[in-house]
Amino acid sequence: MILKDRTILVTGAGGGLGREIVLACGRAGAHVILSDFNADLGAESLAALTAAGGSGELRLADLSDPASIAALGASLDGPLHGLINNGAIATGIGGIGFRDIDIAVWDKVMQVNVRGTWLMIRACADALIASGSGRVVNLASDTALWGAPNLLSYTSSKGAIMAMTRSLARELGPDHVGVTAIAPGILTTESTEYVPQARHDLYETGRAVPGKQGTGDVAEVAAFLVSPPAITLTGQTMPVDNGFVFN
To answer: pTM higher than 0.85, yes or no?
Structure first.
């Protein structure tokens, strides 16, 4: 129970990878604060957590709304040991060339994926520092490491997450807060339904270790990275994709 007596906040907790991260943290003994903009999906994740014997609570927040993020941070009434920034826009934004990306779509992706992550860390920073050993885990993507085509807004946002991770690791390090990132490979979730089969095939043939990694595999890494044993890991982006890319 490496997260026993620790409180972990997970954004984008309402489905897919977010729900798996919630469950992994719960199994490790954490009290989980689930954050999502969708009340129904958030409630379903909370129900799954409690049904599995975990402890948690739901607090709604919209990553596109600075006031909503600030309100979530202000609602934290005790030390926060970990923040896992999983919330992001990934659905329905790929498959077209860079010339054809709608400017409004580009701005929305950056607003949620990059600005939303920054504002969430800012809102939670005091509570993380108060814990004495806070951990931030940002969800990046290996698409930003190998340069996936026809996905420029998403890969650019995830590249920014990696840069943010490095800078904040140095800025928050003196306060005993570690900051890392995970770069998952392609996962089978509702957000990857648009991915062309050719890209799935590329991953299948390009992995150093055969087989797919699932959302549960990525979730277990996230849970480890907010645990005390991971305290000396900071500033790093860790691909979790069976060796499709090496960082």
So the answer is: yes
